[in-house]
Design goal:
globular; Uridine Diphospho-n-acetylenolpyruvylglucosamine Reductase, domain 2; Vanillyl-alcohol Oxidase, Chain A, domain 3; flavoprotein; single chain; FAD-bd_PCMH; 23% strand; 447 residues; four-stranded mixed β-sheet; D-lactate dehydrogenase (NAD+) activity; FAD-linked_Oxase-like_C
Length: 447
Amino acid sequence: SLNKLDRLVAELGDIPVVTDPKVVRRRSRDFFWYSPILNELLDGKSADLIVAPRDESDVIRVAAACARHRVPITVRAGGTGNYGQAVPLNGGVLLDISALTDIEWIKPGVLRVGAGAKMNAIDAETQAQGFELRMHPSTKRTATIGGFVAGGSGGIGSVTYGGLREHGNILAARVVTVEEKPRVIELRRDAAQKINRAYGTTGIITALEMPLAPSWKWIDVVVAFDDFMDAAAFGYEAALADGIVKKLLAPVTWPLPSYFGALKPHCPDGKSILIAMIAEPSLESFKALLGNRGTITLETPTDDSPGQVPLYEYTWNHTTLQVLKSDRSVTYLQCLYPHDRLLEKVAEMRELFPDEVLQHLEFIRFGGRVTCSGLPVVRFRDAHRLNEIISLHEQRGVYIANPHVYTVEDGSRYKRADADQLGFKQEVDPFGLLNPGKMRSFVSARA
Ligand code: FAD
């Protein structure tokens, strides 16, 4: 197999390649270590070499060479995924897509951009024209738009626009197939969902067309509450208040704020908080809605320029990271609450796991309804107890997207691959070379 890789490298010509095993092993990892379970399962998994295409024609050459030699190819962008999405299970090529950053064009409300562009770089360009991405993960400062679409789900902005899965949140994707003669396919409208959260198993995305939102001057706000349920109830009212323009509403239970490093001066002892991003012209209405139910402890313009720590880096999966910085014994879950019994279920889960599951909610729209995604911090005992906590949630109608598994199927709601994605994979990756093992129900008809 070494010979096979040597022949592959020789065919790549002037396309940059990294073979230093230390570098290759380090870049083959992502943030799967958040999960003690994945940390064991994925330990030591690595690519054999990194190939860094400079443009789409390089991507096509790499795809052709990998198909000819039957070498696996796993795309890596920012490497910030949480489930080992970008960790190659069977070696081969780690395709570093981060040079494909060109913005092809920006029009009012829409842009076309290289898949390797970082989301903060995209926003910096579009904000100059009064627009910004509708949503971004809390890893916006390091993650790419292609990695978000292929490995993520939603984030800051989803309180208004829902997740990436909603109709209209991905307008088009351009993908390169892994065949001896690769094709370039344009997926438009709902067909673009074939690459959404497929972990790069259904084609190499080279460009994306994404809808934009009007950009606002956002204000980072922290509100302290005596009781977590008050923070959740006010967050719900603010989420439902359509006249208040917001990008983020995240209730966080005490004691989680006690881990919040630089934010601690704004987190009074014993208080739960609501973290919010509110458009400046809506701030007055937001405060009027709040009344004297909570105390505003921070109010400052959002700043995510280099060197700054924006407030959103305490939300979504950054909440877990802030705690992990000083306590490596915790892990987390990803919940979806039922929209019609939201606060009731939040209170129920709270009573079920006092001190063991520390609640952190994210208000989102889901299928047009306002509800909460939850990323609670869990004090980890063992895998058995973690699975028990998951079933106890599900038995009571709180759905869990398990973040302790690495396949597309196990991480999905129905524990199976989307039929469209599975069928499309047969077309674009006939030999099963793209991130092998991640779409476990795929059986190649040709390999
Ligand atoms: P990578 O990790 O490099 O890749 C992710 C997946 O996409 C891999 O399977 C990879 O193979 C595939 N991929 C990447 N680029 C391409 C391409 N061009 N073509 C085909 N496949 C490709 N996620 C959220 O959705 N919301 C959040 O709020 C959020 N918060 C996070 C907070 C923290 C602290 C951490 C560590 C992670 C968080 N994540 C979140 C997960 C992750 O950061 C995001 O999904 C991010 O957008 C991934 O982008 P990336 O560039 O790092 O992708």
